[in-house]
Amino acid sequence: MEVKVAQLQPGCVMSKDVPGLTEVPLVKRNTVLNEEHLEFLKAFLVETVEVRPRLADGKTFVPGAVKEEPAVEEEQTASKETDVGEDYLSAVKMYKKLFESWKEGKAVDMSAVRSLFESLFEKIHHSPDYLLHLHHLNNKADYLYHHSVYVGILSAFLGKKLRLTEERSIQVGLCGALSDAGMAKLPSAILRKTGSLTEEEYEKVKKHPIYSYKMLKGVPGVTDSILVGVLQHHERYDSSGYPLGVSAEKIHLFSQIVAVADMYHAMISERHYRPKRSPFQVLEEIEKERFGKLETKVVEMLVQSLVQSTIGSRVRLSSGQEAEVIFFDQQAPTRPMVKLSDNTIIQLVQEPKLHIEEIVKK
After folding, report:
1. Which H or E run includes 2?
2. Which of 41, 153, 162, 341 is the most buried (most CB within 10 A)?
């Protein structure tokens, strides 16, 4: 039976190949469709397909009604983007003030930290594409404060994606935001240094998780999970991390999540010693580095969630060409399929020398 793509649902079974621009069909006969296939067909502007009258589970397929997409007010969208950016920068500014107070020896006020983040956590959960752009608001001098806020936001987002409860997602976000609080106990000369650290200075920096732990221990509102999370966020599965060098089975879930968020933001951000990098390049590198170091399910959730949010985005390729991201394969999510302005389709997984340099716009 022939139906419109907009009427399909997961579980439909193709009765004929969907032809493409090459000899290889876009979707083969007998394929059981899932959400990715449906998005793929829409991306290629396929209008109708042939499917079997029964779904894969044996139930009769009843084509759904074609739904019109609700119109989006441009002013509302622009306002929302501005709100998130302003909220983020406001959080960075407030975090900096809190950090300065910790340097003076004041205690961590958990209610103040929580009030700083909760609205941002919610906004980012509903609009994860902002995670691909907020690092552009960084400035090198205030990197530490941007890093803490971003790691908190991303940790909460990943917690929710990993199906933690609402409260646990907030808790892991706060854990991420406070994981570097102990940096306040380091000499100002180290924090301000723009060049490479000496071995002695680096050894001091490696103690910051312990300082964070001590600062938070006994503070009202700080759970045991947050305490262990900040202490272990630089630990690695192969025991190569610090400060304790513990192995995989002893690393808390909060630490696993914050470790990935921490690494991602550090790698995409502009630093005194290197320029910022493309999220796609960083995600690809983290995927390669995860084995023996990071929790696979957390890395996979980060990669798939962020790449999914780029569908429809304009990107600049390493060739200098601009293209639109139209589809990604779960087997190679960091090498999506893109469409050039002349409608040429490029499968980056088949072009190892070509990569996405920059996300231009949604």
Report:
1. strand 2-4
2. 153
CA dist., res. 274 & res. 340, Å (int):
30
Fold of 310-361: SH3 type barrels. (2.30.30)
Are 316 and 281 in contact by the 8 Å Cβ rule? The answer is no
Instruction: Spell out the residues 6+ positions from residue 98 whose beta carbon is closer than 8 angstroms to its own.
Output: 108, 109, 112, 113, 116
Give pLDDT tens digits for 145-172.
Answer: 999 999 999 999 999 999 999 999 999 9
CA pair distance 268, 270, nearest whole angstrom: 7
Close Cβ partners of 170 (under 8 Å, ≥ 6 residues apart): 114, 117, 118, 121, 156
pLDDT of residue 362: 59
For residues 290 and 93, give the distance between their C-alpha atoms in angstroms, rounded to a whole number: 33
Beta carbons within 8 Å of 34's beta carbon, 6+ residues apart: 10
CATH 3.30.70 holds for 2-50: no
Confidence band, pLDDT 50/70/90 cuts, at residue 126: confident
Local structure of 78: helix, strand or coil? helix
CA–CA separation, 45 and 322 (whole Å): 20
211 with 185: CB under 8 angstroms?
Answer: yes
Give start-end residues of each CATH 2.30.30 domain in the chain.
310-361
For the chain, the C-alpha Rg in angstroms (whole number) is: 23
Q: CB within 8 A of 163, min separation 6: which ones? A: none
The verdict on pTM exceeding 0.90 is no
Q: Name the 3-class secondary structure at 109.
A: coil
Tokens of 305: 């969630």
Residue with tokens 């601009």: 322
Place of tokens 């006020």: 109
- d(CA 230, CA 240) in angstroms, rounded, equals 17
Pairwise CA distance, residues 52 & 114, whole Å = 52
Given the structure tokens 């469709």, which residue do they identify? 33
Q: Which residue, 56, 67, 62, is CA-closest to 3? A: 62
CATH superfamily, region 79-305:
Hypothetical protein af1432 (1.10.3210.10)
Query: Please, what sign has the CA dihedral across residues 273, 277, 281, 285?
Result: positive
Q: Which residue has the tokens 């793509």?
A: 5
